[in-house]
Every structure is written in structure tokens, then in C-alpha cells.
Amino acid sequence: MPLSPSPPAFSRSLEAFKRQLSSRDAEAFEFATFKGLRNAIDKIQNEQAHRRGYRNLNKIRPFLDFLQQYARVIEQFVSAKPDFLAFIWGPMKLCLQVASRLSDAFDSLLDAYARIGESLPVLAAVDTLFSSRGEDHVNQILANIYEDILKFHSRAVIFFKQRTWTIAFKTAFRSFSDLYGDVVKNLQRSKELLIQTASVWHFQEAQDERVRISKEFEARNYRDDQHRKSFVVDWLSHVSCQNQHKELRREQLLYPESTRWIFSTAQVSEWYRESETNSPILWISGIPGAGKTFIFSSIVDDIRERLPESEVIYFYCRYDDPLKRTFSGIVRCLIAQLLAHNPACSQYLYDEIIGRVSRPSDSTNELCTEMLEKVALHHEHLFIGFDGLDECEEQERRQTFLMIHGLLRASKTKGNIRIFLTSRRKEKDIDISLRSASRLDIRPHHLKKDIESYVRVRTLDLSKKFSIVPERQKIMIADIARRSQGW
Predict the structure, then answer these.
(1) Rg over CA atoms, the chain
(2) Contact 88, 67 (CB under 8 A)
(3) Which secondary structure element, helix H or strand E, spans residue 420, and what is its range?
(4) Could you report the per-residue pLDDT of 328-359, keeping only the tens digit for each?
(5) Which letter, b or e, does each residue of 12-27 get, where b requires 16 or more Cβ atoms within 10 Å of its Cβ?
(6) pTM exceeds 0.70, yes or no
């Protein structure tokens, strides 16, 4: 017979867990069942057997056995609502399904469940426990176990719901210990409290200890994470291209029709369409002042708008800025952007940078190239742009092209990396390095609409100042555009 209606400790834990979820996941979990979880596990097992990648799912049997036993206990003795248990079955099902896409991640998740399972108490003779330990104490221990299981799944769901979780896992092999270290300690403490005859004072001390363990665990993980990120960013000491891109965007908004012609050209359309016959490199060339940098910034923004699931990183070269005309400046800036997009890869970058102490023969540029390639290859779709590569010295360009072609060779099977760049014409080394690229050479006829757009906006500004009538405005626009001859 139930001993307590609507236990508040369970409700508080569940509400805290729901706040960490998206509304979509919360709705999906609400109706999850143990049968649905078992069916999902059987399906994963069958799929793995089909591709001969069978993993040892028996590792989670103790955890599943406990959950069934636990479900019966809280249904019978604690008057727990059905959705309390649904929020155990649903997250576990989701985590197993997502992790099964990557065998190493799946093995690590199974190991995590095995470690948690080993820490759980045996809930035998529960009616005896209630009478010998006291209703309130046993209820609280059961609520603690519920809170700990939800805490693990809260962290696991957040990790697996990251769009780039595979990058974090592949670049720095994870055991998921940072998801459950405190959970295991607290579960072991609950196990001890069920076995021991604890006084009220002892029990309260254990509750305080739970809070302390979790706070220290989370604070330590946060400190370690912040230290790694700060160390990597300081080591990169990169120049940022963000402000320049923002400034170009602001100017672009003044002339919204400019550069749009580029996206209707055959070269750009074919480059966007991933195909074995299409080159992964788009090269836009033109004379100085042809608007290459504006076009480049438009492509960056178009990729973000057109392909939101993709990532784009870029670099603006400048001959008059020593930090923006070297290979070192380029590769460090690109790594920093990948880190900003995927903070979880900081562990890998940190380990590699620290590890270079043991291999002093490696140059810093070689290390940066290795790190960029490793992180880049684990993206589903990654675009990398270089504006004004001709503004770097030839030696710096040579290293950049070696990096570009190395990335494309490494990603040839997956085809997940595409390159776009701009430069002036008639740079022999660039012509040779990009002989297989899809090339668009900017000509006067391409820029006719851009010039008309610019003249139109400027003429309207002058008209407000000098009260120029519309008919005169049209004449001015046509005359100036004609005189420019596309330049």
C-alpha cells in the first residue's frame, strides 16, 4: 500500500530535469515506457548484428534489472506518478539510439551504465526496509536515487543533443566519466544508507554530503573546462576576422542588391552541388577593386543562411597587416573559429598543445595544421574561405595551399569539406595550385548591376540633400553606370 501521496522530492527532481530539456524532448519522454526501451535495445542489437558490429549490451543488464525493481518499489510504496518513470525510460532510449551511431561512444555509454549499475542498491524486502529504517528515510533514499539517475541523463541528453557531439568524442576519446563521477559516489552512499541503521543526524549528514559532492564535481569540471579553453585561446593568440566581416555586412545592407548575381552563375551553383565531378574548390579572381571581398563576405553569409546545418570558417588576408598575411595567422584563426563553434573540442586541442613538449622537433605550424585537419574532418559539412590570398607572400601562400590540398585529400572519401577563395589574376603560383578549381573571373558585365545599385543609393542620398527630381535621378544613374563600363 502506498505510504505517501505525490512525494515532493520526486516532483522537484523531475521539474528540475524538465527545465534542462527542450519542449520537444519533454513531450516525447512523457509517454515513454520500459517496453519501448526494451524494443529500442533489441532493434539496436539487431542492427549491430546485421553490420557485424555487435556490442556487449549485457553490460547494462544490472542497470535495467535494477530499474525494473525500482519501478515496482516506487509504484507500490511511494505513490509515484507514471510520468516519473517515463522520464527514466525515455532519456535512456534516446541516449542509446544516438550513441549507437558511433561504436566507441556506444561502448563508453554502456560502460557508464555498467558503472552506475554496480553502485545501485538491491531493493529486496522493501516492506522490511520501511519498517526498520523509517518511512521518511527510505522515501528520501529512493528520491535520491531518482535524482541521481535524472542528473546523469540530463548531462547525457545535453551532450548527445549537441549537433557536433561526435567531434567532441572523436577528437578526444571520452569515457563519459565527467557525466557521472558524482552520480556514482552518491548512489554508493544511498546503497550504504539502505544497508546501515542510520540515525536522523547521520541521515541528514549524508544528505548534506550529496549536495557537497555534486557541487564540487560540477565546479571542478567547469574550472577544468574553462582552463582548457583559456589556455588554448591564449596559445593560439590569433587575430580575429569577425569585426571586419561585421563591417562588411553593415555596408552590404546599404546595397542589398549588390553581389547577388554571383549566386546565379554556373560556377557557384555547381560548387554548391556536391558531386564527384564538381571541384570542391571555388576560386573567384579579378582585378583590384572588382569587389572580391564584398563577394566573399556575401558567400559566407549565404552559406549560413542556405545551409544552417553546415559550418563556415574564413580568413580575410591583408598585405598591410603583419598578422593577416602569414600562414600562421591563417591557420590559428581557423582553429579558433572551430573552437568557438565547437567548445567541446578544447580537450583535444589542449592535449595536443601540451603534448608537443614531448615532440620538440614538430614546428608550431605543423602542429596547427594537424589540429585543424583533425577537427575539420569530423564535421558533417564544413566550408573554409580565404579572401585575398594574393596579399600574402608566396611562401605563406605555398604553406596555405599545402594545407588546403591536405584537407581535401583527407576528406576525399567523405567529401565534407569545401573551399572558396578570392585573389587577383595572374599570380603564377596561385594559377598552378588552383588549376583544378572551379574558377569565376570577374568581368565588367558581372558588376553592372552592383554599380547601378551603388549609384542608385548614393543618388537618393544626394537627392534628399539637393532636392533632385526623380527624372534627373534616373539620368544621373544611367550616365554614371554607363561611364564606369562595369568598373
Answers:
(1) 30
(2) yes
(3) strand 417-423
(4) 999 999 999 999 988 888 888 998 898 876 55
(5) ebbeebbeebeeebee
(6) yes
